[in-house]
Amino acid sequence: MGQHQDVYFVPSKSQWPIVAAVVLFLTVFGAGHWLNAEPGESGFGKTFLLIGFVGVLAMFFGWFRAVIRESLAGRYNAQVDRSFRMGMMWFIFSEVMFFGAFFGALFYARLYAVPWLGGEGHGVLTHQFLWNDYAAAWGANGGNGPARIGGSFETVPPWGMPLLNTLILLTSSVTVTIAHHAIKDGHRGRVLLFLGLTVLLGASFLYFQANEYMEAYRELNLTLKSGVYGSTFFMLTGFHGMHVTLGTIMLAVMWLRELKGHFTRDHHFAFEAVAWYWHFVDVVWLGLFIFVYIL
Prior knowledge:
Blueprint: H1 16-35, H2 45-72, H3 78-117, H4 124-129, H5 147-150, H6 161-185, H7 188-218, H8 227-259, H9 269-294
């Protein structure tokens, strides 16, 4: 059993770290084999991926349940609380770097690669001998150049579903902030109301994004094969959608914990950490809306 210490709480031995290592290995191993399998081959990649994915879900459920029990037992002191806050800050920083790499790829393609293919700067010879009919306009559809390979496509207009999703996420940032203040004030009913609204707004965002993807594939011929524009578009918006999915799940868990009375005015960092994460997701979307959809 872990012992409560004046400086720091040291938990008892846990099986969850090794379980996490095994199931994450199975997930990546299965995904790698599935993606590299020859067409028509079933292989064992899907099986390992499914086992690993289910294992990851079970690992999160079991490990978080253990942490929640330790918290409710009063084993976490002020030093542990500070370490949790620092850990969440570093996690969000790592996410900033994660999206920063993808935004960097987007900016490089727009500011350097596409103009070079169009004959600007160092790309004169490339344009002359390889893509002499390439139109150096973002979207990288290339007129009669790369369009011959993947087919011409249209970009997603920003003032439809992207604008609606922007308003949804901005609204969700307001509702989660109201819920946070309600926890501090001890208004449990208000917390459940506005936190529930935040979960619904997150789910609505995912619904409209799924519809946007279907429209892009069916109506605009915008796919992952649509050159650098298609790959960066789906890479950035897809990873963001994955983060919204995780954030919505975490918010739903916070709603259930609040329903069970786990949080108090002074002890609710789990909710606060999820709120930080949600605000980060909203800020990333604003960058996507501006640099992917509008400009």
